[in-house]
Amino acid sequence: MSEENIVPFEQPKSHSRFPGTPMKSDLVEKASEIISDPLVLINMVSKRVRQLNSGRSPLIPTRPSMGAADIALTEIIEGKIKLADPAPAAEA
């Protein structure tokens, strides 16, 4: 295979205001006790990380070592953000 056919893989640069370390597994475990569905937990954390990175303020005191995902997980653990109740279905 010639070098012309090799595409270099580059990690996208993080644009986070909270560049801490990667997510801590103990926070994931604690948050998963509150939000038991992993897909829902992932979606909640992702949405909150986007909010934090776009300028929203954390709802908890933070440390420089905390990344945006750690902040989101801690907010879930401390009950600062919750899953909204689904709207009741309209009766036909």
| Low-confidence spans | none
Query: Approximately what portion of the residues adopt beta-strand conformation?
Result: under 5%
Overall, the morphology is extended
Overall pLDDT: 84
Gap from first CA to last CA:
63 Å
Question: What does this 3D model show about the protein?
Answer:
The protein is mainly α and 92 residues long. It has a domain at 19-77. The protein is 39% helix and 0% strand. α2 (38-53) packs across α3. The model has no long low-confidence stretch (mean pLDDT 84).
How is the topology of this model organized?
Elements: H1 25-34, H2 38-53, H3 68-77
Helix pairs in contact: 1-3, 2-3
Pfam families: RNA_pol_Rpb6 (PF01192)
Organism: Luteolibacter soli
Subunit structure: The RNAP catalytic core consists of 2 alpha, 1 beta, 1 beta' and 1 omega subunit. When a sigma factor is associated with the core the holoenzyme is formed, which can initiate transcription.
